[in-house]
Design brief:
- The protein is mostly beta strands.
- It is built from no helices and 9 strands.
- A hairpin with a 5-residue loop joins strand 6 and strand 7.
- The protein is globular, with a radius of gyration of 17 Å.
């Protein structure tokens, strides 16, 4: 979907969201930042790409019951199905990242504090292209 927001290099750490870390203040950013440190107290340092924690805990969740406007890609003639959105606090970074739940995960399957992991997902596809994204999948571990 967006270049350099995630990787699925199986030889390294598997599927991971990618952020950047400031070498001066150690602040981590997602989505990635390539121009300057967003920390207002920092005078700036080199921004280095870092893989983010693959797991985190559900901070909040809800469902989307309406078809989002453009540029969201959807077929207006297809039946609309609600989707589940999660706000997940990443394990090491302690930052909250939003994303959709993996297909098949319903609101009733979720609780605040449960552990989830980032997994690859499909945003949209046609005959020539598959647009990928990330989803959050429960791990079965509870807080």
């Amino acid at each position: 979907m967006v270049a350099d927001w995630f990787t699925d290099d199986a030889e390294e750490d598997g599927f991971r969201l990618l952020g950047t870390r400031c070498s001066a203040c150690s602040a981590v950013f997602f989505p990635r930042e390539d121009s300057f440190c967003r920390n207002p107290a920092c005078t700036g340092g080199e921004l280095v790409q870092v893989p983010l924690s693959p797991r985190g805990r559900v901070w909040s969740y809800t469902d989307g019951r309406y078809r989002p406007p453009a540029p969201y890609v959807s077929d207006p003639s297809a039946e609309w199905k609600p989707y589940v959105l999660l706000a997940v606090e990443l394990e090491a970074e302690r930052m909250v990242v939003l994303g959709q739940a993996a297909p098949g995960v319903e609101l009733a399957d979720l609780t605040v504090g449960m552990e989830v992991e980032v997994v690859p997902g499909v945003l949209s596809e046609d005959a020539d292209t598959t647009w990928t994204t990330w989803h959050w999948q429960p791990t079965g571990a509870h807080k």
